[in-house]
């Protein structure tokens, strides 16, 4: 398992009973997590210190209950030299997946090493299903030029806020609000090429024009199309999946049969996770598949 274990502004405190207790800077949140099915907690007293608790509704969705500290509508957390805006959203999310820091470290190291060897090279990265831009911010900070694509205009606006907070808003990022599948197809017709691709596809979703996305039906063909817009000497390819049933071997096979088949290189895949030093538990947070030249 690849662990995001270098955080200081984020901490997984404890887990259990399908919930997780986390510290985001100085605020402690209790949120549902379907992986934490064990019916015990290591630090029961800590759960009483939550500043906000998300409770699911029987009719779908849920709501936040605020306790103790005056939790602001937004605040920031830092990861190294990166700064992210945190907001409590209607469906338990905060706008950031902290486990992805282990992937930020991986591809940032590749970018930095390549630029040391070839300082004049412009490394073009395509970030698909890019959400609030965690990977966009990290890749830009490492020295890459990013095209950020997401179907939700609000998420793209949030990503721009993260760039401003990280003092990277003067860097050349191409912001695209569009359906990912259609955008990739258009880039292929235009002949545009990228040196690396990052994607974080949902299990299910709809594009701005009502396009239906189901990962088990669409991911393979999307990966095939993405191989057509990679440069002649690409650096890496990253696929994240939170979908139950798509294990690491499935993601590894998909990358092997598409990107690996065309470019060779090395394909690996594994769970990513968040360690809790206080409880001694590691919380699994999905699968990442990596191709590297």
Strand and helix layout:
Layout: E1 2-3, E2 10-16, E3 19-24, E4 27-32, E5 52-56, E6 62-66, E7 75-79, E8 82-86, H1 101-117, E9 124-128, H2 134-142, E10 145-150, H3 153-165, E11 174-177, H4 180-190, E12 196-199, E13 204-206, E14 212-214, H5 215-227, E15 236-241, H6 248-263, E16 266-275, E17 282-292
Parallel strand pairs: 1-16, 4-5, 9-10, 9-12, 10-11, 12-15
Antiparallel strand pairs: 2-3, 3-4, 5-6, 7-8, 13-14, 15-17, 16-17
Helix pairs in contact: 1-2, 5-6
Concise structural overview:
With 293 residues, this protein is α/β, with parallel strands linked by helices.
Q: Could you please describe the fold and organization of this structure?
A:
The chain is built from 6 helices and 17 strands. The model has no long low-confidence stretch (mean pLDDT 95). Strand 9, helix 2 (134-142) and strand 10 form a beta-alpha-beta unit. It has 293 residues and is α/β, with parallel strands linked by helices. An 8-stranded mixed beta sheet has the order 1-16-17-15-12-9-10-11. Strands 2-3-4-5-6 form a 5-stranded mixed beta sheet, with no helix packed on it. The protein has a two-stranded antiparallel sheet with strand order 7-8. The longest helix is centred in the middle third of the chain and has 17 residues, at 101-117.
């Amino acid at each position: 398992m690849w662990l995001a274990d270098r955080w200081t502004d984020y901490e997984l405190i404890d887990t259990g009973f399908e919930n997780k207790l986390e510290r985001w800077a100085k605020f402690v949140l209790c949120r549902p997590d379907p992986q934490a099915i064990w019916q015990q907690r290591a630090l029961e007293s800590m759960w009483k210190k939550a500043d906000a608790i998300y409770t699911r509704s029987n009719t779908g969705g849920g709501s936040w209950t605020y306790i103790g500290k005056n939790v602001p509508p937004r605040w920031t957390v830092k990861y190294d030299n990166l700064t992210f805006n945190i907001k409590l959203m209607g469906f338990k999310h905060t706008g950031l997946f902290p486990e992805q820091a282990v992937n930020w470290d991986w591809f940032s190291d590749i970018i930095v090493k390549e630029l040391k060897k070839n300082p004049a090279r412009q490394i073009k990265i395509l970030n698909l299903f890019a959400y609030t831009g965690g990977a966009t911010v990290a890749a830009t900070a490492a020295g890459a030029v990013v095209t950020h694509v997401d179907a939700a205009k609000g998420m793209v606006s949030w990503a721009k806020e993260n760039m401003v907070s990280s003092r990277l808003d003067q860097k050349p990022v191409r912001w695209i609000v569009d359906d990912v599948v259609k955008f990739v197809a258009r880039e292929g017709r235009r002949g545009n090429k990228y040196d690396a691709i990052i994607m974080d596809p949902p299990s299910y979703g709809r594009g701005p024009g009502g396009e239906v996305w189901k990962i088990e039906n669409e991911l393979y063909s999307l990966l095939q199309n993405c191989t057509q817009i990679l440069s002649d000497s690409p650096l890496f390819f990253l696929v994240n999946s939170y979908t139950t049933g798509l294990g690491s071997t499935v993601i590894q096979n998909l990358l092997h049969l598409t990107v690996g088949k065309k470019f060779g290189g090395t394909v690996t895949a594994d769970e990513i996770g968040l360690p809790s030093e206080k409880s001694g538990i590691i919380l699994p947070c999905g699968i990442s598949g990596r191709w590297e030249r």
